[in-house]
Amino acid sequence: MHASRFIPSLLLLLLSAWPGGVSSAPAAQRIAAPAVTERALTDARAGQTGSLASVAQAGSQQPARGSQGRILFILASSKVHGTSALPASISFGEVVNAWDTFQAAGYAVDFVSPEGGAVPILDSYVGKDMQPRLKDESIMNGLRNTATPAQIDASRYRAVYYVGGSNAMYGVAEHPLLQNIAMQVYERHGGVISAVCHGTAGIVNLKLASGHHLVSGKRISGFPEEHEEQDAAYFKQFPFLIRKTVESRGGSFHVVNNDAPHIEVDGRLVTGQNYASATPVAKAVVEVLRQLAEPQPKPGTAKG
């Protein structure tokens, strides 16, 4: 072989073998590992370290190139109402309708619940239009493998979304780690807090760094106690009432007297009244995030 051709080939071979040298792997194989593997999992207060595998399973879909970021769905773990044997469930449609909206807008979705793992889905909470989605593994895998609060790094999320369903009344509102996650997203990272239907129960105890309740002075919606079956056994298990608690915390509670969608948007807080409000809530969150992402004009700068 001619020397002028042999020397460059020899140099390339040496560089390939040298640590940090030229790689022969295709570019697609040199992309860094998914961000989920970089999540901080330790939480001293919980005394847990979490599992990379379970968080990866809970990460229902990785953001595509050009993704807007991630939304964290907060669900309840309780399978019964309070101390009774009465079955309770998440609202599957409130997951699906919001999921579809966020995915269409370019956001990835993760799930968290107080206990982690599978959350309850009762057939009575799944309408005929939603039944085919029970076979949608992109959603169902996440609902079967929700992360624990200790496995969540709040800095990764642009918003949280509290899902409704009758079990949302139990185990979420009083959970300190879930409270901390939501308020980090809201105060430290300038994100959005949202909730729909009974999911509004999850925000009633949230407090700002100032010590004031998040709902204080805010327009709030959610499923009101006057729309409940107040003579039913499940209702007697409720640890608190949504409207009454919001108003006792200084919030202004707003609903309509039918099943029509109704939402309230107050700054970076978005709440919806009922099942039909899941899609409008998600759309409003997307719009608020869009506005937050827009460059703000400098003080004194006149618009053209």
From TrEMBL:
Entry annotated with the keyword tRNA processing: no
GO molecular function, one term: peptidase activity
Pfam families: DJ-1_PfpI
Keyword Iron-sulfur part of the UniProt annotation: no
Xref: InterPro entries: Class_I_gatase-like (IPR029062), DJ-1/PfpI (IPR002818), Prot/Nucl_acid_deglycase (IPR050325)
Range of residues in the leader sequence: 1-24
Xref: Gene3D superfamilies: 3.40.50.880
Domain DJ-1/PfpI per the UniProt entry, residue ranges: 94-287
GO biological process: methylglyoxal catabolic process to D-lactate via S-lactoyl-glutathione; proteolysis
Keyword field: Hydrolase, Lyase, Protease, Signal, Stress response
GO cellular component labels: cytoplasm
Family that this chain belongs to: Belongs to the peptidase C56 family. HSP31-like subfamily.
Stated name of the protein: Putative intracellular protease/amidase
